[in-house]
Amino acid sequence: MRITAHMRDWPTTAVWRMLIATLILGVAACSTSDYDAPIQAFKSATDAAATSTGKVNTSLAEATLNYAVKSAARDPANNHLKREAKDCGAYNPATEVRCRAYFELRSADGEHSVTLRRDDYSDPLRGMVGILEAAQTYATNLLAVEQANTAEQVNNSVDSIQASLVQIVKAANPKAEFNDQIPQAAGEAVKWAFGQYIESVKFDALRKATSAARSPLALAQVVFKDMEQSAKIALTSSAMEAASDSIQKMNPHNESDIRTTLAAQNAYDDLLTAPLSSMFDNLVGAHESLAKALEGGSHLSLREALGKLDDIEKQAQTLAKIATDLHDALKK
Q1: Which of 5, 14, 50, 89 is placed for a possible disulfide with 93 were both Cys, Cβ 3.0 to 4.6 Å?
Q2: Is residue 6 part of a domain?
Q3: What's the pTM value of the predicted model, to 2 decimals?
C-alpha cells in the first residue's frame, strides 16, 4: 500500500487506538469471565451428586447386610452364608490369596434366589460412586483452568483433566480405553497484548477439554443407567421385606406403629424412585450445554446449563434425604 503524505500526518495515538479497539474486540470473544459462574455451578453440582450418592451407598450397604444376616439366621434351611470352595486356605494356606464369603438367599417358595457377595453388601453402588467421583475430579480440574493465572497452570490442569477423563472411562468400563489427547493450551500471539493472552489460553483449553469429555461422559451415562437398574433389582430386597413385614405386623390402634410402618413403605418407594440416573443425565446435559456455549458463544446454552445444574442440586438433596430415611426406617 502506498503511504500518502496525508496518511503520514495521522496522529500516532489514533492509529494505536484503532489497533487497541481491534484487539479488544478479538479478545472479548475469547474471555472466560462469562463461564466462571456455570463452571463453578458445574463443580458444585457434581460435588453434591457424588456426596449424596455416597450416602445412599452407605445406607444401602448397611440395609443389605442387615437383611442378609437376619434372613440367614431366621431361615437357615433356605438362606446360607457360604464361602468360595477353594478360598480361605481350604487347600493350601501358603498359596491362598483370597477368602470370599457370600450369602445365598432363597424366597419362601424356593422359586427365586439371590447371591450377595462382599461388594454387594459393603459397597453396592460402587460403580456409580466411582463414576461420580471421577466426574467430580474432572469438574475440579475444569474450574482450575478457568481460575488459572498463567499458561503453565492451564497446561498442568489440562494434564489433570486428561487423567480424570481416563478415570471416568475406567469407572464405567475397566476394559475400555480413552486415547484422545487434549492438546496443550496455546493462544494466538496477538492476544499477548494488554495482558489478555492468558484469557485466550484458558478459553482454548476449556473449549478443547469440554469437547474431549463428551465421549467419556456419554459412555458413563449409558453404564450409569444400567448400574442403577441392576442395583435396584438386586439390592432392594431389604427395603421390600421391611415394608411388607411392617404392614403385616402393624398394630392399627398404635400411632407409633402406624408411623413406623409408613416410614418403611416410603423408604421402599423412595429407593425405587431414587433419581440416580436422572441426576447423572442432567449432569451430562449441563456439560453438553456448557461445551456448546464454549464452541459458539451462546448465552442460551449457558442458561440451559445453569437450569440443569439447579435441578441436580435439588436431586442431590432428595438423594441425601433418601439415604437418611432409608437408614432410619430399616434400622428399626
Answers
A1: 89
A2: no
A3: 0.78
